[in-house]
Please model this.
Amino acid sequence: MHETVKTVEEVSRRPVTVPGFGRPLMNHEMVVNMGPQHPSTHGVLRLELIVDGEIVVDVIPHIGYLHRCFEKHCEHMANYQQVIPYADRIDYVAAMSNEFGYVVAMEKLLKIKVPERVEYIRVIMAELSRIVSHLIAIGTYGMDIGAFTPFLYCMRDREHVLDVFEETCGARLLYNYMWVGGLSHDVTPNFSEKVKKFCKYFRPNIKELNDLLSYNKIFIKRTANVGVLPGDVAINYGVSGPILRGSGVKWDLRKNDSYSVYDKLDFEIPVGKGLKGTVGDCWDRYMVRVHEMEQSVNIMEQAIDRLPAGEVQSAIPKRIRPEAAEVYVRTETPKGDLGFYIVSDGTASPFRIKVRPPCFVNLSALPAMCRGAMIADVVAILGSIDIVLGEVDR
Amino acid sequence: MIPQEIHSALQQKFPDAVLDAKLDGVIDPFIKIVPHRIKDIALFLRDDERMLFDSLMCLSGIDYTGGKLGVVYHLNSTKWNHKIVLKAEVTADNAHCQSVEAVWKTANWHEREAFDMYGVVFDGHPDLRRILMPDDWDGYPLRKDYQVPEYYHGMKVPY
Model:
């Protein structure tokens, strides 16, 4: 049925509601759409900005454009090893870290211990992966804010890490390298040499990056005092990783809830100190990533020195059949706490696998960071969260 | 606190809401609770000086088959560094559970996801919409008896 024609005045008096926004819009408020195809959203993310002039009143994120039914697929897998290539694709810029989380969870479920050599190789891979992820985060963050050059420097360094991965397992992005109970195969004989060489090469480049971007006056102006997230709010939102540490909370699962061999390695947890503005602003979150890369280099150097010889596949049956049990394991990926909740019903295929992706939770705190900021700051805040939509949507 | 102490403290405070528990012989000890009392329990667990469960690590929906759904809460205390798992069971035809969004903001999106995938309605949630699937999607994809539709807006779904 058609509505009767109303006058412009009548129509304009009608309250406008936006799903997800608590109240009807006021007369001076406006909805601006950002995404799903917008370069600063780092993928297919749509944000509805409720704005009052230049000021952001609220942000309503719409996600799910990249939903690939990870959890549904897992339930249809014939066995537990087959999940690993899918786990790679959760966060595709740091695939090693995802595999790591999954295999740690599976090994806890199966109550098996893997050889020490495997643990050390896994740690080295995870830290290389952390450097790759942070380089992309830093490079694209600079680009979001208008600095194009750092991106090229970051990509140049990333290339060296990808070469190490390629030599080890043949793939540059999605590896399927860590298997439940071990690794798919051993590293090449000159692996230690290559990693050492990379550590030596990369350390001065962090300083170069600092000179180029971190302490750049314009960059600081754009990021300091922007998108402040206080520590207690951050914990309540459940955010993790560099965002939580940027808010001054010293929380890193590698230390606080240690797994693998991280408790034998010596490294520090960088936290935001509000050097250029307030604790928990965009600059702090950015700087935590830079410091973390330094720490990753430290960890790798120690791990390479201690790398024992031995087998890389512990004796577990080809077809894994865990007893009916469930486990929740979280590991520290570059983006934050990655949790796997695995429920087994005693058969060879998983009953339920739930992923708690760090980006999903971190992104849910975006409205809290954006309220009261300017529209241009939304880009800066979103970039500082460093989301990968593959992980948000799974 | 060890899980046994948490369990007895909860039983003392909420004798009618705590059902049973499995604290030994499992990897993660869990306590079963009544779904419509979860908010009070959550508030107690967050604010009590001995508990201080300030972070909700994960909230998952699960389909136990046979018309039973579950909501699983994994809690962690950043101060005391202890953990506990809470489980609430609902039936598929009357899947109502209390929302804990007001206690932990993390629950907002996690509850929306559980609603999206399992159809568990969280009473008291401020904005319970689908989150990963399109708004007009039919059914709850992660339920075990879910049938994939043939078409969605004229597009073939199974590939």
Remarks:
- The domain at 79-370+377-393 of chain A is CATH 1.10.645.10 (Cytochrome-c3 Hydrogenase; chain B).
- Chain A touches chain B at residues 19-20, 22, 63-64, 67, 69, 71-72, 75, 108-109, 233, 235-238, 249, 251, 256-257, 325-328, 330, 337, 339, 341, 343, 352, 354, 356, 360-361, 364-365, 368, 393-394 (CB under 8 Å).
- The two ends of chain A are 41 Å apart (CA to CA).
- The mean pLDDT of chain A is 87.
